[in-house]
Structures are given as C-alpha cells and as structure tokens.
Write a structure and sequence with these properties.
The structure holds three protein chains of three kinds. Helix content of chain A is 51%, strand content 12%. Chain A is α/β, with parallel strands linked by helices. In chain A, helix 12 links the parallel strand 5 and strand 6. In chain B, the strands form three sheets. An eight-stranded mixed sheet of chain B has the order 1-14-9-6-2-5-4-3, sandwiched between helices. A four-stranded mixed sheet of chain B has the order 10-7-8-11. In chain B, strand 3 and strand 4 form a beta hairpin. The radius of gyration of chain B is 21 Å and the shape is globular. In chain C, the strands form two sheets. A six-stranded parallel sheet of chain C has the order 1-10-7-4-2-3, with helices on both faces. Chain C has a four-stranded mixed sheet with strand order 8-5-6-9, sandwiched between helices. Chain C is globular. Classes of the chains: A alpha/beta, B alpha/beta, C alpha/beta. At the B-C interface, helix 1, helix 5, helix 6, strand 11 and strand 12 of B face helix 2, helix 3, helix 4, helix 8 and helix 10 of C. Strand 11 of chain B pairs antiparallel with strand 9 of chain C.
Chain lengths: 239, 225, 469
C-alpha cells in the first residue's frame, strides 16, 4: 500500500483489497511496510532512498506472492528504480531485482496477470482517464486502465486531448516550483472541463490530489476518483 | 598542446562500449523512379520527365516556369550523359570578356538555351536567373538529389540563383539513404550536398517560407531510358 | 558561456509564467512543432530500430572517442584541411580570432552553431570584428541583442509582430507583419554580407571519421553560402560529434530531422570535405576544423552522466517538456535549455553554477521518450539532484532543511515503530504546517488548497476489518 493512500486516501486501499478479494484472491497487508522510497529517490537523495528501500526489501523479500500496488508511480519506483539504488553485484541489488519481478501496478495485475477486464463495477457517468506519467511511460500501461474503465457498466470513457501530458505534480517539483506545477495543473483541468467528463479517474492518488487541490483553490471543484474506487463501485441500490 | 592533453585524457577513459552495429541495408522498393517523383514533388520540387525525346519540351517548360531566358551550366562533360549533344554556336563565344558557349540540345539549331560560362564573379552569378547541374544520385524515399562539386563544377552556381535545375538520370535513382551510402562514397568533391526541394525556413512562428538564402525553385528533369 | 553568478531558474520562470505574450508564442509555435514531429515519427514503422542503432553507434564512439577523433583528424588532413584543438572555451575563441587576425580578416558570416553559443564566440569576436548570424532565427535573435531560446528554433519566443517591429527599428525596413516580407528583407541584407565576407564559420552536426566529412543539416542555404563564398571556412565542433562511418547518416539524418522539425529531410544536408580542389571553380582555399573539449572529457569520465554526450541537439526533448512549454528557453539562462539543458548545463559549468536546473522537471519522462538516441534524462536529473545537495560551499542550492528532513524521514521509514510514531506526530502537527511562513506546505498552498489526512489511516481501517467488529 502506498503511504499517500495510507494516510490520505484509505478508501483507495480498502477498495483495492475489495476488488482483489471479489476476484477470489487472498490479500495480505503487512503493517511493517512504510514507503517505497520514491520521494527521497526523486529528490536525488540516494542514500536515504536506499535506506527506506532496504526496509521495503526486508519486509517483502521473503515472500513469493505478487505485490500489487494501486499506484503507477510507486510501482515504477519498485520495478524500475529500486535495483539501481544498490551497487552492481551487491546482494541487495539481486534481492531488489527479484522483488521487482513480483511488483504489479493494479491495472497491470488485473489485465495482464489475471486476464480480468470487468470487475463487475457500475457507474452511470462520463469518465475521463488521466494517464499518470510513470504508469504510462515507465510501465507502458496505456490500454490496460482504459480497458478496465470501459468495462465498468454505465461508464462512457472520454479521451482527454494531450492525455499524456504531465499534470504538473512531480513530487517535490510541486513545492520546488509551485507556480509551474499549478500552471500545468490548470491546463490539465481546462482540458478535463472541456471534455464534459463527470469524473476524472487516474491510477495515481498523487495526481488527483494535486488536480483537486487546484480546482478547489479556483473555486471550481472537480470530482476525482482513483481507478480502484471506480472498479470497486457497485450499483447503488435504491432504498 | 591541447591536442595531446585532450587525447591523453580520452585514451585513459576508454571503456567497453557496445559494438558498432551493422549498417542498415538499402531497401529495394519497387519503382523507385515513380517514388522519387512523388517525394520530390511533396518536398516542393517541380519534376519533369524528359525521357522519350521530351527533353527539349521539358527545358522549354522550365524556362516558362522560372521566367528565365537562359540556363547556366558549368560542366559540359556531364551533358552527354543526359543525352544532350551540343556544339558551339557562333559569335557569342566571347561576351563581356567571358567565354560563353551557346548549346543546342541534340544538336538542333533554334534552341540555344544552355550556356556555359567561366570564369565568373560573384556579381555575375547574382544576375543569373536559372542554373543547372547534373545530380549524381536521386533518393526515392525523400525526393533528394545529390550534388557534387568537381572539375569545372563549383559550389556557387547551384546556390546563388533564384532557380536551380537538376538533370537526373533515372539509372541513378536509389531507393533510400541506406542505398545511397551503399552505392556512393565521397570521392574527390570538396562539397557534396543532399538537396531536397527549394530553400526554406520556418524560423518565425514555424510559418513556412520558401526561398531564404538558396533557390526559391528547385526543378528536376529526368533523363535516360 | 561561463557565467559568474549561479543561474536562477526559479525566479526567471516566475517572470516567464507572467509573460502573456511569451506564453502565447510558445503555445502557438510549439503546438505546430509537436504535431509535425509526431506525424513524421509515426511515418517510420522502424523508428525504435533506428533509435537503437543510433544509440549503439553513439555509445560505441564515446567509449573509444580518442581513437575515433584521431581517425577523423587524419581524414581531414588527407583532404587538405587543417585541424586545431581547444581544451576550453577561451582557447577555442582565441583560435578563431587568431585565424582572422593573421589574415587581416574583419568580416565574418556565421551559420548556426550551438557550440558557438556555448563558448561565447560572438561576444569574443564582436569586440573587434563584424560577425553576422545568417540563419534567419539567429539573425533575429542577434538583432534583438538576445540569445537563442531553443536548440533548433532560436527565435521561438518571438511572434511575427515582434520580429517585424525589430526589423523596422534596427534595419529601418518596413515589412508589415508578413513573414514572407521579413524573409525577403533578410535575404537581400544577407546577400550583401555574404559578398563581403572573408571568413565563414559553421557548426557541425556530425563528423564522419572514415571519410573526413563534416555534415551540416540546414533548410535555408545559409550554411552552403557560408562554406562557399568566403576565402576561409572554419568549422567548430564539440569532440562528441564524431561518428565512425558516414553511412550511419542513413540512420542519424531521419532521427535528427524528424525529431527536430518533423520534416522527412531538410532542404540541404551539406557534406563538407575540405577546401576547394585545384580544378574546382570556387569554394574556400582554406578550411580549418576546430575540435573543442570544453568540459566534455570531464563528463565522459563520469559513468553515471556520460550518456549526456550522445545528444544530437534535435530539440525534441524541449518541445515535449511541459516545463519548457510553460516558461520557454530563456528562463534557464543557459545556452542549452529544457531537459537536455537541465542535465548538460550543470555538467559543463559545474553544479554550483546551475543548481536549480536539475530540479526544474516533474520527471514525467516525456523527454526520454522523445529522445532519438534514448538518453535517460530523468535518471541523470535525479543523479545531478543528489550532487547539488551534497555539494559543499556557498553556491550550492539547497532547499533549506530538505536533506535533514529526508534523513529523519528515512530513519523513521526504516522501522515500523518509528514510522507509526512519525505518522501520529505529523497528524497532530498538520494543522500547524499551514500556518508556517515557509516550507513545503506554504509552497503547496500557492494556488492549491492543502489536503488533510484521513481521520484514520488505511492500516488502522484494514486491521479493524480483519479483526472484525
């Protein structure tokens, strides 16, 4: 589970568990886990990142089961960047490589590992899917989340123009260069509003948090939903 | 001093890099001539087919399109390769102190259009409205012509005038750039230029403008059989 | 060009964001560039294969650069050229000055060269000689007394109205706001300069070691004129531009050109092979190639960074970069801008000179995706971020307390118990964060509301769920 979801969006975590359990899987959450180390890695602080990554490996290296992450960004960190934190030939690096093999971003896991497209979810709405950069470019997940969204009963998927363009969050970038970050977010919001979508769905809570915070500050809130929340959503039964 | 210091540093820095990959093989696409014509046209060149006895007609058309009265040509030896026989015509052999030939394509009088002049000065070149040269190769993929300098063939005549004509033998058309470098290696020429269409710029607002420093018109006549 | 005070991307970028005209110009022009690049790349089904080939050639060459340069030098000498070497920017400009002085040359035409910008060539020459930039975009930028804002489109930041006003002011020609008339005016002015020029300076896109051929890629024809009219042609190139075989152009030309302008090929690709031969009617009797290191061998010595030198200066990373799209090139204050500038500038000038550059990216990865030679720009950015923060000295740019905060955070995150305590504490302190006069929460709140932690974290909810009510 990602630390952002843990602290800010626990709903996303619960929904992820629910989706997987409904598909008949046994889900474990190890409470010893903390963070994937990405914040330090992206800040360029590799020693600090390696320390946190080491802890992640201590928690997860022993198992063999797949590790499912409801975030493209954290999954990319674990799959792509983690091994590089450790010196070539070190035992940590080998360990990180093995763990990386087991890490799956949620949509990747559902579509490519389980062969699932429909999670039985339903929502009457026009939904825009926002590509988070790491999910799209580091993990190459473009069609997977879209297929899942399309399979949700009642959903009409609308494509955002320039959907591959960054929303401006970028971790520490968002506070190092807040003006540029917000400016990019506003452009993304303009395209979202123009699309006529009722909801914006993404595989990363961080992008959504950024976009939502800008929309609120402008006094024009938008409705955002993590992919897991959408996929877990059941038709509301009238009372 | 600098040389040995730089190279000394570089020599100490060598590492095990990747191998040099094999060169890509040239394509053998069907009908390269037709593809050349289309690509050159898309790049803004005007292409005429001078084969089958239509060379003269094409030259007339080039004059009409460019509004020029004469075509300046430097390299007389290359003319024969395009099926143009010529002979020196008459009294205009010396003009303004320059040796000037007046040529008849295919030896027929009444068509004194190709001139050959040397020596010349920059100012003289500035007044020329249309120049011509033989292209060493044509590249079908991109509609590109290879121009080479050489004995009696300079750099300026193909770049200063507002219009430039290439004569291209169809047997010299290759499929793509890989095929070009398979069949051609730089010889004696001090400057070879791959020319595709007219001079252009998009430096202001990415708006295309034709004819900045070089020719506004790029014309091609295919020769041979 | 070396600067003495560190570049300040952050404050420059704020100004750029507020410049309406600039942002309109960027949006308008970059939009067109992106479309044409995309279409041009999509036309080639084997694009990825070309990228892999080019990358292998570049890395192969870099791994044995000294040897390849020796072969290039021998081939150029064979063709009657002269080869000079410069370790630093100052040496390089001095070599050019000496070439002019020894021949009493005072009038120079120059065609686009990023290396020229890097070593401050114009500034050095203009003190005593007449130097005219002949590429239209460069000419405009020179008239404006500015520096290029993009690798390929130097005047990207200016609109046609701004250029027209500049022509009227500096050249006293009336051109309306018509790009055709602007171009025609530039052509006739430039022809006069070409006629008078004694020395032509060009950059180099590629230099083939096997044939001694220097390759210049252009659309306008100004490079052709620069190497044809004057009596001396001087080509300047960074040592990393050499490639082993001329025939690799069949890969490099489409990669460079489609990435840069979206064309299939440019109007001209000049293959320069020395001075005029005795039987040729024109061309420069003298040809000099200047090979410039200026920090490149230092970059090469660093395995974590050296792939930076594979860059072929196509500008695609700039065009696709959301940060560059927002603030333009001048905000970087350096010769090289956008993603490639963010990694190259700190390496050329030292991280202390451009401490903010590596941070000026959301790490979205669009640059690496667009790069025709696959330079891992985000990874190099991250590497440089670490170096900026570990650098001692007054010039290092450190976000106050960040390293400490991350050290503390890492300490907490490497133990479940400490992590829980950190979370509990931060939840309690959260309301205070908003009120701090500075810090991350304050920066976040510029244009954004501050989100609040959920009443209970996932781990607690999950435990409850497991254990049942």
């Amino acid at each position: 589970m990602t630390c952002l979801v843990d602290q800010f969006f626990p709903r996303v975590g619960l929904d992820t568990v629910q989706i997987l359990e409904r598909l008949g899987l046994e889900v474990h959450f190890d409470p010893r886990q903390t963070c994937c180390s990405q914040p330090a890695h992206n800040a360029g602080l590799q020693a600090e990142a390696a320390r946190v990554a080491g802890h992640f490996l201590d928690v997860y290296a022993a198992g063999r089961e797949p590790i499912v992450v409801p975030s493209g960004s954290c999954a990319a960190m674990l799959k792509v960047a983690l091994p590089r934190l450790f010196g070539e030939g070190s035992s940590r690096r080998d360990q990180a490589r093995q763990v990386a093999e087991r890490v799956w971003e949620l949509s990747d896991f559902l579509v490519n590992r389980l062969g699932v497209e429909s999670t039985g979810a339903a929502l009457e709405a026009r939904v825009a899917y926002h590509d988070s950069c790491h999910s799209l470019r580091e993990l190459g997940l473009r069609e997977e989340p879209r297929r899942l969204v399309r399979a949700v009963l009642g959903v009409e998927l609308v494509e955002l123009p320039n959907s591959d363009r960054c929303c401006g969050f970028g971790g520490t970038f968002s506070v190092d260069f807040p003006e540029i970050s917000v400016s990019l977010g506003r452009e993304k919001l303009d395209r979202i509003r123009a699309s006529g979508a009722d909801w914006v769905v993404a595989s990363d809570a961080s992008c959504l948090m950024h976009l939502e915070s800008i929309a609120r500050a402008c006094g024009q809130p938008i409705r955002t939903m993590h992919l897991a929340e959408l996929l877990a959503r059941r038709r509301e039964v009238p009372a | 001093m600098s040389r040995s210091r730089i190279l000394g540093r570089l020599d100490r820095l060598e590492w095990e890099g990747p191998d040099l990959p094999d060169l890509p093989a040239g394509a053998e696409g069907a009908d390269p001539v037709w593809r050349f014509v289309r690509a050159a046209g898309e790049a803004g060149a005007i292409v005429g087919d001078g084969r089958g006895g239509r060379l003269e007609e094409c030259l007339q058309e080039v004059l009409r399109v460019t509004g020029a009265e004469e075509i300046y040509w430097e390299d007389e030896e290359a003319l024969a390769g395009h099926g143009i026989e010529y002979r020196l015509r008459d009294p205009r052999a010396f003009q303004d102190g320059k040796l000037v030939y007046s040529l008849h394509p295919n030896g027929r009088p009444g068509f004194p259009l190709l001139l050959h002049s040397r020596p010349r000065t920059g100012q003289h070149l500035e007044r020329i409205g249309l120049s011509a040269a033989s292209a060493t190769r044509g590249v079908a993929d991109t509609g590109t012509l290879l121009h080479e300098t050489g004995a009696g063939r300079g750099r300026l005549l193909s770049i200063l005038p507002p219009a430039h004509l290439f004569l291209l033998r169809v047997s010299d058309v290759v499929a793509d750039a890989a095929a070009l470098f398979e069949s051609w290696t730089p010889g004696e020429a001090s400057l070879a230029t791959l020319v595709t269409g007219p001079s252009r710029t998009a430096d202001i607002e990415k708006t295309l403008v034709i004819g900045v420093h070089g020719p506004r018109q790029c014309l091609v006549i295919l020769t041979g059989s | 060009m070396k600067t003495t005070t560190p570049l300040r991307f952050r404050s420059n970028s704020r100004e750029a964001l507020n410049d309406r005209q600039l942002r309109d110009n960027l949006r308008h022009t970059l939009g067109k560039t992106l479309h044409s690049r995309e279409a041009a790349v999509a036309e080639l089904p084997h694009w990825e294969q070309l990228r892999r080939h080019a990358r292998a050639v570049k890395l192969h060459t870099l791994s044995r650069l000294g040897r390849t340069l020796r072969r290039l030098e021998a081939a150029v000498l064979e063709r009657g050229g002269t080869v000079l070497w410069a370790e630093t920017a100052a040496q390089a400009t001095q070599l050019v000055l000496d070439l002019a002085h020894r021949r009493d040359f005072t009038r120079i035409v120059k065609s686009k060269s990023m290396l020229g910008e890097e070593i401050g060539l114009n500034e050095a020459l203009e003190r005593r000689l007449e130097v005219v930039e002949t590429d239209l975009g460069e000419f405009v930028v020179q008239l404006a007394g500015q520096r290029p804002s993009h690798l390929v489109a130097p005047a990207l930041h200016l609109s046609r109205a701004q250029v027209a006003a500049l022509f009227e002011e500096k050249l006293e020609v009336s051109v309306g706001q018509d790009v055709e008339r602007i171009t025609a005016a530039a052509r006739s002015i430039m022809r006069r300069h070409f006629q008078r020029a004694q020395m032509g300076i060009t950059g180099v896109n590629f230099a083939a070691a096997d044939s001694g051929t220097l390759v210049v890629v252009e659309n306008e024809g100004n490079a052709r004129l620069s190497v044809s009219v004057p009596r001396l042609h001087v080509a300047i190139m960074g040592i990393e531009k050499v490639i082993p075989r001329l025939a690799d152009l069949s890969v490099f030309l489409p990669l460079l050109i489609r990435s840069a302008t979206g064309q299939r090929i440019t109007s001209y690709v000049d293959l320069i092979q020395g001075p005029r031969r005795p039987d040729e009617p024109d061309g420069p009797p003298e040809f000099v190639l200047i090979l410039v290191d200026n920090g490149r061998s230092r970059i090469l010595a660093d395995p974590a960074l050296r792939e930076t030198l594979a860059c072929i200066r196509c500008g695609a990373c700039q065009n696709v970069c959301p940060v560059f799209q927002s603030v333009g090139g001048h905000a970087y204050g350096s010769t090289y801008q956008g993603p490639i500038g963010a990694i190259l500038t700190p390496q050329l000038d030292g991280v202390g000179q451009a401490p903010e550059h590596p941070f000026a990216s959301s790490l979205c990865g669009a640059c690496r995706e667009a790069c025709p030679v696959g330079i891992p720009i985000p990874e190099i950015l991250v590497e440089l971020r670490g170096r900026v923060q570990s650098r001692k000295g007054a010039q290092a740019w450190r976000i106050p307390g960040r390293k400490w905060a991350f050290a503390l955070w890492a300490w907490c995150c490497s133990s479940p118990g400490r992590y829980r305590r950190l979370l509990r504490l931060s939840r309690r302190l959260w309301p205070l964060a908003e009120r701090l006069p500075r810090g991350a929460a304050r920066s976040w709140s510029l244009g954004r509301t501050l989100p609040h932690p959920a009443p209970r974290p996932f781990r607690d909810l999950y435990r409850d769920r497991k254990e049942g009510p």
